[in-house]
Amino acid sequence: MKTRDHGGIAFSVASICSLIFMLMIDLGSPAQARDKSGVLKASDVIGMKVQNTEGKSLGNIKDLVIDPENGDLQYAVLDFGGFAGVGDKYFAVPWEALQFNPADKKIALDVSKKDLKEAPGFDKNNWPDLSEQAVVIYEFYGVPLPDEDNKENILRSKQ
Asked: Which of 41, 68, 69, 62 minimizes the C-alpha distance to 121?
């Protein structure tokens, strides 16, 4: 006489239903949605790791700074130094100084750790007026000021 193991069948059916339910929730989650348009979203950049050109970690992007007058992205704010959030310092890095690698989802910055320690930075709880430090910041990273680009374009168009 054959005996049936109803407990084992019920467990298997319950397991399969749970797995299907979890997959449906995970696939339908907006956090899992992938943008296929090729745009770079702020939510993707914030938190992204930054490495120097030698592959050494420099920290991660904490914020983005947008010029309220023209809407241009001015800086990515890099969190560098310290340990577990203690003693770290923020650095406003001109967006033009960063190289984004979409394949690796990493950002590169052509500066050594030693040099970055000497970069103009600020306390994460005391943000300065970055417009007052723009010349120093852009010069440190070897990037022309946005206004200089506009001046050059205006001069070229008048010739």
From this structure: 62
Q: Tell me the Ramachandran region of residue 81: left when phi exceeds 0, alpha when psi lies from -120 to 50, beta otherwise.
A: left
**pLDDT digit string, tens, across residues 1-19:** 555 555 555 444 444 444 4
Q: How far apart are CA 31 and CA 27, in angstroms?
A: 9
User: Is the whole-model pTM more than 0.70?
Assistant: no
Q: Amino acid letter at 149?
A: D
Q: Where are the beta strands (DSSP E) in 81-155?
A: 89-94, 98-101, 106-109
Domains of the chain: 42-153 (2.30.30.240)
Element (H, E) at 25: helix 6-28
Q: Are 58 and 50 in contact (CB under 8 A)?
A: yes
Is 107:99 a contact under the CB 8 Å cutoff? yes
CA nearest 103: which of 38, 33, 17, 16?
38
Of 90, 80, 150, the residue nearest 126 (C-alpha): 90
Residues 6+ apart with CB under 8 A from 106: 48, 49, 50, 51
Neighbours of 119 (CB within 10 A): 17
